[in-house]
Amino acid sequence: MGTTQLEPVPEPKYWHLKTVLSEALDSEFSVGEILPNERDLAARFGVARATLRQALEQLELEGRLQRRRGVGTTVAPPRMGVSVGTDPHSWPGGPEDAWQPVDCTTAVPPAAVADALGTAREESVHTVRRSRVSHGRPVAAELLYVPPSSVPDLTGIDAPSGAARARAVLRELQRLELERQDSAVELGSARADDAKELDRLPGAPVLVVTTRFVAGGRTAALSVATYRADTCRLTFGDFGGVQVHHGPQARAS
After folding, report:
1. How many CB atoms lie within 10 A of CB 189?
2. Residue 161, SS3?
3. pLDDT in tens, 207-227
């Protein structure tokens, strides 16, 4: 591996190095490949190791790299697309749903959730907890709030607790005719419980996608999904399959 000297630029040196490294990831490395050690990379680009570490940390924050203890720094897989299109899709738990049910409890939801569902603030609802994994790493966690009126035939005998009860709630939702679903996306910070489930530090950037499922003219369920911002990206329509990094190259995800 030869030496690549960086050209003088007005931006911080580590930031320019980050751009050069990003282009190298596209042209020279494949997903999962381990990068050379810091000493070799610093020598290749003619920079101090401290500058190199800053660039690597920024690429890790952007989801281009993964640092794995005992393995080293590897090229991260493409970001998972989060569709925010306006076309109706399907109820959670459908045949093409990539989410995995984890648990289901019955409890009073946050006041804002109760207001969105149109339930009394002291009324308990089913809270289904689900997770999503991509390339072996957790990328999203979801809380799906379902009022008892949306799943009136649910019985504790059929599904007393845990993932089995979560699947039962999802099956009952399929009986309703979905009229539409509305989604909103905002940037947030990982709370302690989200951070633990997503293998991130508290306060790490996340994308919070809130989806309202409407059936019978009312909100039948409300999903609050928290995505790791370093592994996910928003997609719109057919263009969602194209992923462009900071260099001139584009890749299909």
Report:
1. 13
2. coil
3. 999 999 999 999 999 999 999
